[in-house]
């Protein structure tokens, strides 16, 4: 292939990516060696918590060419997921409701994006077969499904810069998007990275309920509500239960306070539109689910992978963080006998919290009230 051929193909790839529903497509080489020291420090400090797979794969994450031998480029893509009418403030401020991270309200993004990336790869291969005889496009798609440093690759590909909360930020659309990659063997021209634009802002660090962002660009997953509610098995440490509030799956706080997210555009992707039972659900209604209902209601959702025990554990904490209510206390007591030991521990904690608040008077979660005030001052457009 000539240089002209490669440049023409790169432009077509970006056009095909747009047709497939990706909001942005960038191309980069695979050299992530500059991230190896930071990755090793993060692992040495045990910031990955119980995610043993992070340590097991080690430096492979910074060497994507070893994941698919022969690859020389990564085609990085972005797909927006911010739902229109996200109702952030309404749900977070209502202790009777459960808050689900907005990325998980619709269909599992892994399946949606992987299918589209495979289609993009097939388009590249078909183009090579018809327009560039003798050229073979050997590719492999990834969507948060293999040991690969996705954000550093996307940053090099020009999709954004890494914010102090460790998420990727784009000046036009904030951080409400998923990332995916197509490793490929073609030496396509690469794109330029965006400049870092966080400046002196530390809103994400300040607002984090559990102070999981221990310094700019460094996240201790063991303190992160997303990790605790999704990845962590067993009992959640008591020190983090109250700060969790009514968040039962994930946490969006560091994104909600980010000034760049005021410019985010709601997604046009139908697959990411909220499922009614999860958009602004009542805690009591979710607590009433049995395992069969949980599996049925979360079919095709990323939530399903946490399993019913973690689901009940998270709900018990949210109920314990709500205002005292006889119906909630009765519901907890009724489920206690049949609950697993892990869930039973959290039910007991929740009952003790509700009893304490009954005696002392309940004034609500001040941290959540502060967050809601910030959200209401700078909501994303149409959110």
From TrEMBL:
Binding locations of cob(II)alamin: 61, 144, 162, 168, 179, 226, 251-252
Residue stretches making up the 4Fe-4S ferredoxin-type domain: 189-217
Cofactor: cob(II)alamin; [4Fe-4S] cluster
Top-level taxon of the source organism: Bacteria
SUPFAM superfamilies associated with the record: 4Fe-4S ferredoxins
List of residues binding [4Fe-4S] cluster 1: 198, 201, 204, 258
Keyword NAD: no
Catalytic residues as annotated in Swiss-Prot or TrEMBL: 144 (proton donor)
GO BP annotations, alphabetical order: tRNA queuosine(34) biosynthetic process
Cofactor binding, note field: Binds 2 [4Fe-4S] clusters per monomer.
Functional pathway: tRNA modification; tRNA-queuosine biosynthesis
Principal localisation: cytoplasm
Annotated EC: 1.17.99.6
Any single GO CC term annotated in Swiss-Prot or TrEMBL for this entry: cytoplasm
Catalytic activity, as annotated: epoxyqueuosine(34) in tRNA + AH2 = queuosine(34) in tRNA + A + H2O
Compartment annotation: Cytoplasm
Residues that coordinate or bind [4Fe-4S] cluster 2: 208, 224, 251, 254
Keyword 4Fe-4S: yes
TM regions (residue ranges): none
Subunit structure of this chain's protein: Monomer.
Similarity comment: Belongs to the QueG family.
Function: Catalyzes the conversion of epoxyqueuosine (oQ) to queuosine (Q), which is a hypermodified base found in the wobble positions of tRNA(Asp), tRNA(Asn), tRNA(His) and tRNA(Tyr).
PANTHER family linked to this entry: EPOXYQUEUOSINE REDUCTASE
Protein name: Epoxyqueuosine reductase
Taxonomic lineage: Bacteria, Pseudomonadati, Pseudomonadota, Gammaproteobacteria, Alteromonadales
